[in-house]
Amino acid sequence: DTTSNMPPSYTKAVKIIKLGQYKEAISLLKLADRKKPKDADINNLLGFSHRKIGDLDEAGVYYRKALKIDRKHKGALEYQGELFLMVGKKAAAEENLRKLDEICWLGCSELDELQAAIKNYKS
User: Fold this and answer.
1) Distance CA 52, CA 69 (A)
2) Do residues 72 and 103 touch, judged by C-beta distance below 8 A?
């Protein structure tokens, strides 16, 4: 379980993200980020939450931070790929898919999800 060494605000944010409470999650994740800076999981969920409320520029900032911390972060590669599709950058999404394919040589849900998103993408 990746939440065991995380601040309580991160654990609470994960729970409310599942309920669709993204704005509330952002506040908690920013608190977690202050307590545990340079954590790829926290930055990935900040990106995810910003993307879900339509703040795509801010989402991109956090995905880039997450991937700077851990360039093989599967969740950030998937979600950033989905963001690329939302802004019409299919080639960039396909590049993220290629990276996931290298990391997940036995397959992973992040690879499957991004592959499906690209397949269903309408330019």
Assistant:
1) 22
2) yes
For residue 48, which phi and psi values (nearest 5 degrees)? -60, -50
Q: Report how far residue 55's alpha carbon sits from residue 36's, in angstroms, rounded to the nearest whole number.
A: 23
Q: Are 55 and 68 in contact (CB under 8 A)?
A: no
User: What is the phi/psi pair of residue 119, to 5°?
Assistant: -60, -35
Tokens describing residue 95: 């590049």
Distance between CA 90 and CA 69 in Å, rounded? 24
**Residue at token pair 């499957």:** 112
pLDDT tens per residue, range 32-51: 999 999 999 999 999 999 99
Q: What is the pLDDT of residues 100-113, one digit of tens each?
A: 999 998 999 999 99
Alpha helices in 2-73 (DSSP H): 8-18, 22-35, 40-52, 56-69
In the chain, the largest separation of any two C-alpha atoms, in whole Å, equals: 41
- Cα 72 → chain centroid: 12
Residue 74 corresponds to which tokens in the numbers above?
């599967």
